[in-house]
Amino acid sequence: MYAATATDRTAAEPASYATPGVLPATCTGEVACAWNLPHHPESAGTARRIARTVLDALGADIDTADVVLIVVSELVTNAVEHALPPVTLHLEQRTESGALHVEVDDGGPAPEDRARAAGRDPEEHGRGAPIIALLAIAHGERALPRGAAHWADLPIAA
Questions:
Q1: In the sheet that 33-37 helps form, which strands lie side by side, from edge to edge?
Q2: CATH (domain of 97)
Q3: In this predicted structure, what is the pLDDT of residue 120?
């Protein structure tokens, strides 16, 4: 299994754990957290486990969790398959809207798309963005100094 490295956006130092199933007290409530993920296909599963831990801490119901986990998986998979490293997962509860902000940063477009390079059937790809658009309150992307951030705001029901 690939481990994630966690960082707390409110602290100068990274959080002291790298296990998705452990959520430090500083990453609950209104604090935004970030996890650096390996640029590897298994990172989507790692990201889902991290998100599940956060959702449990927030008291999210199972239907809400299912939606969030789909979006997390799609965003991380897209970063791994279509972009350069690094891959960073950000989760933040937005108090003003009650939404969970999910963001995945990447290193920008890969020179060669991994899905095409692997000889995958194009009919089996390209559904992630429409799925995210359907499930999210809002979604989008923005340029970063060294890459891009793809994000979605999702309703949280407890």
A1: 5-8, 33-37, 87-94, 99-106, 147-155, 138-144
A2: 3.30.565.10
A3: 61
